[in-house]
Amino acid sequence: MDTGRAVEVFVFPLPRMVFFPGTTKPLNIFEPRYIQMINDSVEKNAPLALAFSEPQKLSEGFMSGLGVRRIAGVGRPIILESRIDGMLLVLVEAMGKVRIHHREVTDKPYMVCEAEWVDEVNALEPENIFLMNRMSKEFVRWLEANVGDRDQLAIFLSQLKSPHEKINYLCSLMIHDAETQQRLLEADDINDRLRVISLLADQQRESVHV
Questions:
Q1: Tell me, what's the pLDDT at 203?
Q2: Distances, alpha carbon 57 to alpha carbons 16, 64, 65, in Å
Q3: pLDDT at 58 over 50
Q4: Which long-range contacts (CB under 8 A, 24 or more apart) does 54-57 make?
């Protein structure tokens, strides 16, 4: 990844959905223009931005008139299944995140934009090790309560090696408010994300006991 360097991305606007670095996102693609976009992305080895969108949104942080947030997670799609009816089952593996600058004029039926890579601080600060351990235990308890297949859960947990992967999956799976997720994505330091999700967890526990 050329951090801070310009990159051309295919933009997939998804209503109120946030894609964090270090995670994966399964997608069922059925609209013809996005089927073409996925196929083109795979063929050209071009990055795919999964962008939080709200139609007609014009406020700060959105691309004017397009309703797409400027900060978006980016990955490379893997086609898991191509069905007879044309639908694609796709897994997008995150590569990082970008800041989208503007839409390019193309003959494609989907959005192609110029963007730049955004660097993140992925090293856990020593003073946050205890907090990381506490939130990791809460994450495991949450997964055990919400994932029925214990074998798949064990495989998933064994693949989470680094703090930034664990924190980003915490943000992706345990935080349900899309606006909060987007604000967490826009933070460039995993330590900031960890502190916010810890605070949210504390507030949730307090509300339960009120």
A1: 84
A2: 12, 8, 7
A3: no
A4: 54/15, 54/16
Segment 170-210, tens digit of pLDDT? 999 999 999 999 999 999 999 999 999 999 988 877 665 55
pTM for the structure as a whole: 0.90
Q: Which two tokens stand for residue 76?
A: 């490379």
126-208: what fold? Methane Monooxygenase Hydroxylase; Chain G, domain 1 (1.20.58)
Domain edges within the chain:
6-118, 126-208
Residue with tokens 């700060």: 60
Detail the DSSP E strand segments found in 1-135: 6-15, 24-29, 48-53, 62-63, 68-69, 71-82, 88-103, 111-118
Q: Which two tokens stand for residue 129?
A: 């090790």
Section 21-43 average pLDDT: 95
Chosen CATH of 6-118 out of 2.20.25.10, 2.30.130.40, 3.40.50.11690, 3.40.47.10 = 2.30.130.40
